[in-house]
Each structure stands twice: as structure tokens, then as C-alpha cells.
Design goal:
Radius of gyration: 19 Å
Largest sheet: 7 strands, parallel
Mean pLDDT: 98
CATH superfamily of one domain: NAD(P)-binding Rossmann-like Domain
Strand order of the largest sheet: 3-2-1-4-5-6-11
Number of helices: 11
CATH class of one domain: Alpha Beta
Oligomer: single chain
Low-confidence stretches: none
Order of helices and strands: EHEEHEHHEHEEHEEEHEEHEHHH
Distance between the termini: 45 Å
Shape: globular
Number of strands: 13
Strand content: 15-25%
Bound molecules: nicotinamide-adenine-dinucleotide, 2'deoxy-thymidine-5'-diphospho-alpha-D-glucose
Structural class: alpha/beta
Length: 331
């Protein structure tokens, strides 16, 4: 297949591109605007005969139409992805997550192209810490932030295009990803690179919020499974049973890097901060036979820490500006 991967220079998109090139015969074209979050260094080492890169905006209808016409399937990762940025300036989230997705699905329906939409568990809102329930495909949408509300909006557009226009689409909603090549604005890379630089990790609020962690490679294997075997019109939740509270994650990072486990700062909380996410991925596992390979979070985290220690050249150019933005917010 010829795949068009949007947002393929970002954290999870670039992981998927490497994953697909290594394990299949598919050809990949990446369409990416190279915002602050895109990095061509994450796509190094790919073969010229099966990979090409196009710099551009998913909201550019003429560019998108030509690329979608030439593809057998679109895998749509491109997004403004960071909650804190969406609180500071929501507009780019509307432009990319809503108008960009609209532009892509219009092209996909014109050309009858298979479409897979990458979304997030955040569309479901949050859960209480002691709630035995987890998110399922039936959980009502209840997003909290400008980021998650635009992702929810994009999911609803895809669903409407399936029903009204017969768009050949599937949707996946995944939990929090970790692994190499994640931007230093995000929680785990921020804390690792803080400690590597002799700074203290910064926990929002009391550090009690819970995220359901999955290694990015497991997200990629799930997306490839859905692309190959998923039923058109269906939504699949992706998760690896990795619930941890933020304080426990920071303590693991500090310990792995030889620091006292309590050498962190509590800082101003995120407005509207979702308390807990938790994914029930039974449908994906039973219907499509998928299962995650990274069962040991502490081991995956240790590998991720080692990658950041060995690849300062990849993350250092972003670190000062990112920390300056957080400092201005008291975080
Ligand atoms: P990221 O911010 O690391 O990468 C986003 C990529 O999209 C960047 O390369 C950026 O340049 C590109 N991009 C942004 N606007 C664009 C535009 N208008 N046109 C073309 N390219 C554009 O994001 P990520 O963490 O890799 O997330 C990728 C996708 O996965 C997003 O859709 C996100 O909602 C979803 N997701 C992320 C997570 C997570 O934990 N990071 C979990 C579940 C779902
Ligand atoms: O659940 C999937 C989502 O996970 C994706 O849709 C988003 O694109 C992705 O960014 C992520 O969203 P979160 O808001 O959960 O991730 P973030 O890395 O920003 O924060 C994780 C948790 O850590 C959250 O509870 C906020 C907290 N946090 C974050 C930062 C940056 C801190 O305590 N300190 C920090 O410095």
C-alpha cells in the first residue's frame, strides 16, 4: 500500500513511520507542517525508495487533494497536541485539529481513500481516582480542554462523514504515550531532561493525577492492526493497562537517575486538569487479536531515560524555550 501519514515528523507519527517501514512493504509519504513539534531528525535513516517527505499544512486543500489522490490509505496523526499550549492559545488547535481534519476527509471521500483517524482518550473527559470503571467505546464524549474538545470535534466529523458520505474510515483513541523522540514540553521528557540538566522535576498540583501509559511502539502496532483488519466505521480504544499517578512516575525517574525520590517541586496546577484516564481495550484485543509488547513500564521508562541521556543533541535545541514558557506560567 501507499500510505499518506500526516504529522509523521512528530513523536508518535515518526514512530509509526519507522515501525511500518521496518515491518511491511508499504510505501510512506509524510505530510507535515514542521511546527515547533515536528523534527526531521526523527525521520532519519529511512530508505529513499519507500519514503518521501512533503512539507505542508493539512488545511491546504489543493496540496492535500493531490497527495490523497495518490495514496491507498491516509493515517492521520497531525495535530496540535499539547493541553497546556491549548490553554494559552486555542486558535491553532481549531485550525489544525478541526479544519485540517475536515480538509483531509473531504479529499478522502472525493477519492474513495481509506482513512484512519488518530485520536485520544481525552475526548471522554476524566474519571474519579476510585472509580472502578474505565473508558470504553461506549463512554459519552465529555472533553475538558481546548485541545481535547478539538480532538472530540474531529472524531465527530469523521463519524459524520462515514455515515453521510460513506467515508471508509476507522478511529482509534489511545492513552498517554511514552518513549524516545517525544517533545520536551510533555510530562515524562520534561522531567527526565530537567534531572539530566540538574533541575528539579515539576509536578502540577499534588501529583495525584493518573495517566494510563503505553509505549509508542505498542500504539504503532495497534494502528497498523486496525488499518489492516479494522471494520469500517468502527472506533477502537488503545491502551496497555498502564495506570500510574504522576508522583510515582517522577519518583521512578529520579531513582533511575540516582537522585533522592523526593527531589521534585510541586507547582501551579493546570486549569481544568483531568484527574484520571483509564482505557479498556478489550474490543481491540478480542476482535482484532492485538496485544501490547511493553508490559513492564519501569523497564520501558528506563530505556526512554537512557535514550534522552544519549541524545541530548535531539532535545537540547527545544529545552530553553520550553522551560521559559513554563516559567512564565509559574510551572
Ligand atoms: P506531536 O505534537 O509530537 O506531533 C504533531 C505533528 O503534527 C508535528 O510533527 C507537527 O509538525 C505536525 N503538525 C501540526 N500541525 C500541522 C498541520 N497543520 N499540518 C501538517 N502537520 C502538522 O504529537 P504526538 O504526541 O505525536 O501526537 C500525534 C497524534 O496522536 C495527535 O493526533 C494526538 O492527538 C494523538 N495522540 C497523542 C497521544 C500522546 O500521548 N502524545 C496519545 C493519544 C493520541
Ligand atoms: O491521554 C492522551 C493525551 O496524553 C494526548 O491526547 C495528548 O496529546 C498528550 O499530550 C497527553 O496529554 P496529557 O495532558 O495527559 O500529557 P502531559 O504530558 O501534558 O501531562 C501528563 C500529566 O502530567 C498530566 O497530568 C499533567 C502532568 N504534568 C505535566 C507537565 C508537562 C506535570 O505534573 N508536570 C509537567 O511539567
Amino acid at each position: 500500500m501507499k500510505l499518506l501519514v500526516t504529522g509523521g515528523a512528530g513523536f508518535i507519527g515518526s514512530n509509526f513511520v519507522h515501525y511500518v517501514i521496518e515491518r511491511t512493504d508499504h510505501e510512506v509519504t509524510v505530510l507535515d507542517k514542521l511546527t515547533y513539534a515536528g523534527n526531521l531528525a526523527s525521520l532519519e535513516g529511512l530508505p529513499d525508495d519507500r519514503f518521501r517527505f512533503v512539507k505542508g499544512d493539512i488545511a491546504d486543500a489543493a496540496l492535500v487533494d493531490g497527495l490523497v489522490a495518490d495514496a491507498d490509505a491516509v493515517v492521520h496523526y497531525a495535530a496540535e497536541s499539547h493541553n497546556d499550549n491549548s490553554l494559552a492559545d486555542p486558535r491553532p488547535f481549531l485550525d489544525t485539529n478541526i479544519i485540517g481534519t475536515y480538509t483531509l476527509i473531504e479529499a478522502a471521500r472525493r477519492h474513495g481513500t481509506r482513512f484512519h483517524h488518530i485520536s485520544t482518550d481525552e475526548v471522554y473527559g476524566d474519571l474519579e481516582l476510585d472509580d472502578p470503571a474505565r473508558f470504553t467505546e461506549q463512554t459519552p464524549y465529555n472533553p475538558s480542554s481546548p485541545y481535547s474538545s478539538t480532538k472530540a470535534g474531529s472524531d465527530l466529523l469523521v463519524r459524520a462523514w462515514v455515515r453521510s458520505f460513506g467515508l471508509q474510515a476507522t478511529i482509534s483513541n489511545c492513552s498517554n504515550n511514552y518513549g524516545p523522540y517525544q517533545h520536551v514540553e510533555k510530562f515524562i521528557p520534561r522531567q527526565i531532561t530537567n534531572v539530566l540538566r540538574g533541575e528539579r522535576p515539576k509536578l502540577y498540583g499534588r501529583g495525584e493525577n493518573v495517566r494510563d501509559w503505553i509505549h509508542a511502539n505498542d500504539h504503532s502496532s495497534a494502528v497498523l492492526t486496525i488499518l489492516e483488519k479494522g471494520r469500517i466505521g468502527e472506533t477502537y480504544l488503545i491502551g496497555a493497562d498502564g495506570e500510574k499517578n504522576n508522583k510515582d512516575v517522577v519518583e521512578l525517574i529520579l531513582t533511575e537517575l540516582g537522585q533522592p525520590a523526593d527531589a521534585y517541586d510541586l507547582v501551579v496546577d493546570r486549569p481544568g486538569h483531568d484527574l484520571r484516564y483509564a482505557i479498556d481495550s478489550t474490543k481491540l484485543r478480542t476482535e482484532l487479536g492485538w496485544s501490547p509488547q511493553y508490559a513492564d513500564f519501569a523497564a520501558g521508562l528506563a530505556d526512554t531515560i537512557a535514550w534522552y541521556r544519549d541524545n541530548e543533541g535531539w532535545w537540547a535545541p527545544q529545552k530553553d524555550a520550553t522551560e521559559a514558557r513554563y516559567k512564565a506560567q509559574g510551572q
